[in-house]
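Case study: Purple acid phosphatase.
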Amino acid sequence: MVAMRWDCPSFALVFAVSFILSIAEVCNGGRTSSFVRNDQLSHDMPLDSDVFRVPPGYNAPQQVHITQGDRMGKAVIVSWVTPDEPGSNSVRYWAENSKFNNTAQAIVLTYNYFNYTSGYIHHCTIKDLEFDTKYYYEVGIGKSSRRFWFVTPPAVGPDVPYTFGLIGDLGQTHDSNSTVTHYELNPSKGQTLLFVGDLSYADAYPFHDNMRWDTWGRFIERNAAYQPWIWTAGNHEIDFVPEIGEDIPFKPYVHRYHVPFKASGSTSPFWYSIKRASAYIIVLSSYSAYGKYTPQFKWLEKEFPKVNRTETPWLIVLMHCPFYSSYVHHYMEGESMRVMYEPWFVEYKVDVVFSGHVHAYERSERISNIAYNVVNGLCTPIKDPSAPLYITIGDGGNLEGLVTEMTEPQPSYSAYREASFGHGMLEIKNRTDAYFGWHRNQDGYAVEADSLWLKNRYWSVSESEELSVASI
Ligand SMILES: [Fe+2]
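Here is what the predicted structure looks like once written out:
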């Protein structure tokens, strides 16, 4: 059975069709997909692949990517690398249909990693943009200059429709390329990508060959130069190898991927928040200290009360390591962080938590496990309409391959699980309704292997109204 998506349905129609298609799942709880796939290991694309091509021209800017540059979506950070010399620090930009050219200045960084020396890494924050406007921008000089474009989000507001893509654990294999292609050609048209950590997997190469950070930057440019990728740090960003003198964690990542952490009062690029359209997005770090009194804990403690669901109804958390995963690999790695932060997720009615790390797909029921107090024995997840939906989307396609071994029987908190590569799409419709679809790489671009209408946890918490459409 193939579940095609439909646009702008009436609620009654959605409810009726959803119920018919998914009645078995709703009644019986979790389901493990029987989909049969090629389970051979993924191989990195060779260095002479066209996706890694160096742009022509002397010192031409490469690895161009953008991310949100402020709290509300009126700024963009443009980043790029020049290989031979610093070149121009300027970004020239203009609104579509405008006669006025503007210029903003970048900072330039370099770093060394073992026997590798980076190119010149430029980061430029373009500020005071208009909402909901297409801008063109250019970087580089003369014949080596390159032009791209992006569209700013609508002004932040409670009923602003907006579509986020979800990719995690991407790497740079043939499967990674398939994932990005499927995301690009998905008819739902993602406007911003939420990336849940583990970017290049350069650390899989001898001495963490940082040249693979460069190839990854060139690979993702075709999408990340045109729409913001919202970054989350994963374990493959740590690059901590004191044996070869590399004892500064996250060194390549923090030089290459800047985020607007100061705008949300954060003191670290590993945890921060942004508002975008009708969503409030909190990014957390699974690999930074998160215990009581740590900087991340103290920031998050102040962060949740700031969320105004009348302004941004959809509260989304991104972090690399999942709280709930029923795969054998990485089982319970997120448990201590879950103990620290899950009570807040329930108290503040987080709508959905996206994670990666586990190289497969899984969607949870709305459950919580916050009653345990050492002596009461209450340590089993229970259904909880105030709890987030947990979605593991670490299936981007990196060289480590899929994880296929699952805990049996499938725990009741697990609604659907499947070890296939793919990506997700979260389509916010208004303050009460959103639609999530998971797309596997073997299918056509419009096909959803798993999908669900979400009810906002703040504005509509009736669990009975939240039904999966279909899983195939
Ligand atoms: Fe990971």
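For the exam, be able to explain this: DSSP finds six helices and 29 strands in the chain.
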